[in-house]
Amino acid sequence: LRIQQAIKRYGTLTALDGIDLEVQQGEFFGLLGPNGAGKTTLISALAGLVRLDSGRIEVMGAEVVRDYRQARRLLGVVPQELVFDPFFSVRETLNIQAGYFGITASRQRDAWIDEILENLDLTSKANANMRMLSGGMKRRVLVAQALVHRPPVIVLDEPTAGVDVGLRQTLWQFIQRLNRDGHTIVLTTHYLEEAESLCERLAMLKAGRIVALDRTD
Ligand code: ATP
């Protein structure tokens, strides 16, 4: 990820105040900072959900505004807020998500979705309607949705808020495996022990600026 002089204003509030940041391919990177520091705004800009006032962002060479299709394809984002469609089952939700990326029904697609469900402990809920899931389970589906198109870069915005201890461990094992397989991971969290044990490098954001950037150790 290459973020250059990213500036985003909401009226008089400057949410991103000139962010310069590079995350290397294959890194496990942490984004920390108090509520309102600009973490979600930065992630939204990466994902093309927020337009910067100025500056530019590239995902593996694809610029998020100009090469938006390619940039979206390279990125999987687990959003902070629970969003789900109450009309579909877990499997239908994942199939539809795959369809957004042009991945049509195939044995390969189904095998990958099965693997994701297994790793997130969702297999027994595959045919349950989204409304029937608990909050933590809905969050796992959000993680699954972000992975469906096998993005090389995975961004997780506070993925473990409201998730029980067991799943937290399963989730991190899975994400660490993806990282070992070469995926780049960007994580925001308010659990410092989580950031400390998982991330190789951390950036600390405050009022839209990077106030610290260093190796975790
Ligand atoms: P948290 O840890 O609470 O998730 P954060 O670091 O992700 O916080 P952001 O959500 O990026 O913070 O918010 C940064 C600032 O921008 C905050 O002051 C917030 O109120 C403001 N902000 C975010 N989105 C909007 C919006 N759509 N319109 C106006 N202001 C916004």
Care to describe what's here?
By secondary structure, the chain is of the alpha/beta class. The protein has seven helices and ten strands. The protein has helices at 39-46, 68-73, 90-100, 107-119, 135-147, 165-180, 192-198, and strands at 2-10, 13-22, 28-32, 54-59, 62-63, 75-78, 153-157, 184-188, 201-206, 209-215. A six-stranded mixed sheet has the order 6-7-8-3-9-10, sandwiched between helices. A four-stranded antiparallel sheet has the order 2-1-4-5. A hairpin with a 2-residue loop joins β1 and β2. The mean pLDDT is 94. The site of adenosine-5'-triphosphate has 12 residues, from β2 and α1.
Please compute the radius of gyration using only Cα atoms: 17 Å
How many strands? 10
Poorly predicted sequence stretches spanning 5 or more consecutive residues: none
Biggest sheet record: 6 strands, mixed
Bound heterogens, unique? adenosine-5'-triphosphate
How much of the sequence lies in strands comes to 25-35%
Helix content: 25-40%
